[in-house]
Amino acid sequence: MINSVRDKVIFLIVSFAPWFSHFIYLPILTPHIELMGGKYTFIGIVLSSYGLMQFIFRLPIGICSDLFKLRRPFIVTGMLISTASCLLFALTDSLGWVLIARSLAGIAAATWVVFTVLYSSYFVDREVHRAMSSISFVVVLAQLLGMSVSGIIVNEWGWHAPFWIGGITSLLAAILSFFIYEVKEENARAPVKVIDLTSVIKEPMLIKVSMLSILAHSMIFTTTFGFIPAYALKIGLTASEISLLVFTFMIPHAIATLFMGKLIVPLLGKWKTLNIAFFASALITLLTPFIESKGLLMVIQALNGFSLGIVFPMLLGLAIETIPHEKRATAMGVYQALYAIGMFSGPFIAGVLNTKFGLAAGFYFTGIVGFIASILIITWSRKETDALKKHYEMST
Predict the structure, then answer these.
(1) Where does 5-181+194-395 sit in CATH, by number?
(2) The model scores a pTM over 0.90
């Protein structure tokens, strides 16, 4: 367990950087590609490439990190790739290079599996949910600040300015990441075998949580991180007002991550909390295409931000709380690789639907995805309750 406040601060600053770097341009990415001549289907491909790269790279990164018992080198590499991605965006006006740049961003984000595992090693087992809430807050704060200033920066300095700022931020974090403290593995611990690591994939709770996370990431990357900015412009918002719209989503999102572990889950329980949050987000998404008022759009974005702010840290903590420390990078790699399916399939399917049937179609699809998650939660929670009752009856 880590003791130095300085080491924790360095780690959290580096953790802040990749999300700020790639979310500072996210609100303007869809309109930017449209201005370059890209259609909704191509926009969907660009958005989905981010998740596809994470799906491909996250599990191998997690396995390699566990096998070599190394964390920091993967973090340094991720920050350097993040720098290259942002600078490529800044230097190109080609649709093809935009796709490559976004794919590199996905590879950089794939190293996040190592960030979460290294940070959890700074805490004792009973404080894992607290650790995940803390790092989730840093992520949300980075996303909030980045997305909030995006439209303002474009208005002041042009469409390429957010990419330059992202590249400089990533480069500075890459330098700082060399000073991250890495907890040394116990010498007495037996070497981890590949067969032991791959057995993690069969963990029932990990599979359930990963399925829910696929659906949750499909929702957020299709809406707030996908086509909400395009819809907002369609109903009359300006680029600077999109920053305000992002603010109304991200502030409740951040608040939810802070209070989820301390207040909401102890009051309602894990499954009930997840069910309410997914159902609320699904309903809000279905209602979005019927809203033509700027103010009302901001209100429902705030409600959606709070709902999804409950979902993500909960799923993150559930993914590793029952997994041994020596296998956690692999478990997190499995979890993050699987939820990346939602990050690329959601925007891609929505992009195709939007091209054929209009922008509303993607929101209807995403709302249905949320209701599917709610149904799965109800089914699993009932089975868990029945199993506990049966176990109690047998024991008495």
Answers:
(1) 1.20.1250.20
(2) no
